[in-house]
Amino acid sequence: MKTLTVFYDAHCGLCSQVRGWLSRQPAYVRLEFVPYDSPEAAHRLPSIRHLQADQEIVVMADSGEVWQGGGAWVTCLWALKEYRAWSARLANPAMQRLARGIVHSISQHRYRLSYLMGFQSDAEILRLAQGHESSRSPRVLHDLDLID
Prior knowledge:
The protein is of the alpha+beta class. The protein has seven helices and four strands. Strands 2-1-3-4 form a four-stranded mixed sheet, with helices on one face. A hairpin with a 4-residue loop joins strand 3 (about 60) and strand 4 (about 65-70). The radius of gyration is 20 Å and the shape is globular.
């Protein structure tokens, strides 16, 4: 396995923060991040619409294996150099139920948590950046401006 594709909610501030954190971590395998509701996501994983990716994270390996929810997070941790030991602990059958429950609870409340923590989503940041660019008035040239 050389690449993991992480399908995440780009409209969620917490999800976008976690995407940023994951992308800054030293990793054994390359992590690629794709908004779950994008055309790119549908192209890479045609069944994504049926996986309820709007509710919990989905991760796909370049081998075609797919994980969702707690298993997806454990797989992301497995990819990171400094967290592989944690992934092994959380993959232990005794811890799987706890990991699944925590991830499910956070996923259910991610928008509220984003609001409480003041996190902006990737989609909001992009929208604000595009709005800022479009709010600049273009310079109107007059006849006299064309003369040196």
